[in-house]
Amino acid sequence: MNRFTLPRDLYHGKGALEALKTLDGKRAIVVVGGGSMKRFGFLDRVTVYLKEAGMEVELFEGVEPDPSVDTVMRGAEAMRKFQPDWIVSIGGGSPIDAAKAMWAFYEYPDVTFEQLITPFSFPKLRTKARFCAIPSTSGTATEVTAFSVITDYTKGVKYPLADFNITPDVAIVDPALAETMPKKLTAHTGMDAMTHAIEAYVSTLHCDYTDPLALHAIKMISEELVKSYNGDMEARDRMHNAQCLAGMAFTNALLGIVHSMAHKTGAAYTGGHIVHGCANAMYLPKVIAFNAKEPEAEKRYGEIAASLGLEPTSKALIAHINEMNRALDIPSCIKDYEGGIIDEKEFMDKLPQVAELAVGDACTGSNPRQINPEQMAKLLKACFYDEEVDF
Ligand code: FE
Questions:
Q1: Which terminus in the chain has less CB density within 10 A, N or C?
Q2: Tell me, what's the pLDDT at 150?
Q3: Residues in contact with 185: Cβ distance below 8 Å, sequence separation at least 6, in sequence order
Q4: How many angstroms does the Cα of residue 196 sit away from the middle of ligand 1?
């Protein structure tokens, strides 16, 4: 038996934010990040609309990027005091991810992160509140997914949470919010979305329900992302839908080793973080070359290429991704990332360990080709130096 789960309602298009007026409840807590939603006036509008719906509103502000266990616990505590029947989260991936975890600890104060990280083992949510997510970036698609990532900074570990219980009830995909994104964020989040769609299409768990979503998202992102990056706001609006479609595909089909590698290299080096979407963009062409040695994967990449009007091969798809990366000013390898902030010696010293961790990542299981730590180390090295992948 397979399961396919999406939010009950999805409001989209300019002005969709007003859908908040239709929510039915008594008290809403709004979980938000660092301040851009406030600055651009969206937070005020959220509050006004929720009050128009007859609700009492409380704000939980200041969720940091890569939200911490501490923030989650403070949020859950605020919820226990306020007793909301709606949790409304607005912003980039982080406040929405944090709010998903707060929700679990609000409804189950005695649960632990250790219990929650076993995939698909959450206690039943919605005994106290329902959940509405409003994304302001076009990439993570956390507004429609069953995933959340929380960081325990004291232990130095990331808890990837995965359960259909945390798939939101309502998603509001209003492109006006995404128009506030700076250029670089547009490029990185857009290629994150492209990676979601391509990994979902070739995933071992892809199915008839996820394939059309993934394929259409890839087509839209191919057509719109570079234009959006260059300031075309109509393209920016379509990208907001495209990333959401990609999210609908991957929350059900899961991902692959591009994400395994991005997760484990992201915070591994002293020179700085490798931003998630940029890491995906750099690794994607190498991973396609690696996976394509598996005939079934080659066939699937060929189908993607054909749908873009290209020669039906993985090679043509790789060339297409490389071209997009160039147009988005994304470097072709880790060595060139942010002017070379990742130290070569440190990268090589940590390679065996990072490779081992990447193989063990939750996203590796649904990758179309199996991989061992030695192959992973070679693949990561190829991503560092922009070497050809022929193994
Ligand atoms: Fe991602």
A1: N
A2: 92
A3: 137
A4: 6
Which residues have their alpha-adjacent CB atom under 5 A from ion ligand 1?
192
Neighbours of 311 (CB within 10 A): 12
Q: How far is the CA of 240 from the centre of ligand 1 (A)?
A: 15
Cα(140) to ligand 1 centroid in Å equals: 6
CA of 292 to the centre of ligand 1 (A): 21
Entry pTM: 0.96
Compute, in angstroms, the gap from residue 109 CA to the centroid of ligand 1.
29
Name the nearest CA neighbour of 212 among 175, 244, 249.
249
Which residue reads 């490779």 in tokens?
355
User: From ligand 1's centre to the CA of 195, what distance in Å?
Assistant: 7
User: Which domains, from first to last, does the chain contain?
Assistant: 9-178 (3.40.50.1970), 183-385 (1.20.1090.10)
Between the CA of 82 and the centroid of ligand 1 the distance, in Å, is 33
- The mean pLDDT value for 190-214 works out to 98
Strands 157-162 and 170-173: unpaired
Residue type, 371: I
CA distance 284 to 221: 15
CB 249 within 8 A of CB 210: yes
Q: What is the CA(267)–ligand 1 centre distance, in A? A: 15
Summarize pLDDT for 98-136 with one digit per residue, the tens: 999 999 999 999 999 889 988 888 999 999 999 999 999
| pLDDT tens string 11-51 | 999 999 999 999 999 999 999 998 899 999 999 999 999 99
pLDDT, average across residues 69-73: 96
Structure-token pair, residue 268: 């591994």
Q: What spacing in Å lies between the alpha carbon of 322 and ligand 1's midpoint?
A: 18
Q: Which amino acid is at 156?
A: G
